[in-house]
Write a structure and sequence with these properties.
The chain has about 230 residues and is an alpha/beta fold. The protein folds into two domains: about 120 residues, Response regulator (Rossmann fold), CATH 3.40.50; about 100 residues, Orthogonal Bundle (Arc Repressor Mutant, subunit A). About 40% of the residues lie in helices and about 20% in strands. It has eight helices and twelve strands. A hairpin with a 2-residue loop joins strand 6 and strand 7. The site of calcium ion (CA) has 5 residues, from loops.
Length: about 230
């Protein structure tokens, strides 16, 4: 589903330009030219992000943001008219997540929107007990794993192993660490069981995909890492 963005901007031409660009990017866009009206819209409708100009008729952007924060934590990007540092500080203090200074390149605005939406999505998932690395998601409440939005079926042991790796992402884990954490200190079976399970796990979460997440550290053990981050 496309994200809904509210543009609050009283310069009609600029608002129209932003609307066209965001619409072209696939966002669902609504425009308001007035601070007070924008605040009403934000009370009545669901949006995923607000682009909020500071200089607005009836109620300025700072005040809109301050009042908005009393009932919503929706992502806000403030649009400041000039390179005015106190204004930016005030915007951030009022609870804006980011700001951009006019005149701006539309590409920069789009990049900031994407970054902020990604950050909020990540925060939301973390709240829901979802572990993330690259395009891999583990829902530890529902025991579900997805890579690139495709569901991956894992056995209980494979799941536990993956969770352990991802909870320690970037940290090299020895076979002994893995063995004692997943199989228990009293495990008496084959010690190459870790390698066997890493192979099972790779065949499901790495082999079908271009980016490999599980790395072998020779002579030590394994690490899961997103090299593209
Ligand atoms: Ca304005």
């Amino acid at each position: 589903m496309s994200s809904r963005i509210l543009i609050v901007e009283d310069e009609v031409q600029l608002a129209r330009l932003m609307e066209l660009e965001l619409d072209h990017e696939g966002y669902a866009v609504k425009v308001s030219h007035n601070g007070r009206e924008a605040l009403e819209l934000l009370k009545e409708e669901e949006f995923d992000l607000v682009l909020l100009d500071i200089m607005l008729p009836e109620m300025d952007g700072i005040e809109v943001c301050g009042r908005l924060r009393k009932f919503s934590d929706i992502p806000v990007i403030m649009v400041t008219a000039k390179d005015a540092v106190p204004e930016k500080v005030e915007a951030l203090d009022t609870g804006a997540d980011d700001y951009i200074t006019k005149p701006f390149a539309i590409e920069e605005l789009l990049a900031r929107i994407r970054a902020l939406l990604r950050r909020k999505e990540r925060e939301k998932r973390e709240d829901n007990n979802v572990l993330l690395i690259a395009d891999l998601e583990i829902d530890t409440d529902k025991y579900k794993v997805k890579r690139a939005d495709q569901e991956v079926e894992l056995t209980k042991k494979e799941f536990d192993l993956l969770v352990y790796l991802v909870e320690n992402q970037g940290i090299v884990l020895s076979r002994e660490d893995i063995l004692s954490n997943i199989w228990g200190y009293d495990y008496l079976g084959e010690t190459n069981i870790v390698d066997v399970y890493i192979r099972y796990l790779r065949s499901k979460i790495d082999d079908p995909f271009e980016q490999k997440l599980i790395k072998t550290v020779r002579g030590v053990g394994y690490v899961i890492r997103d090299d593209q981050e």
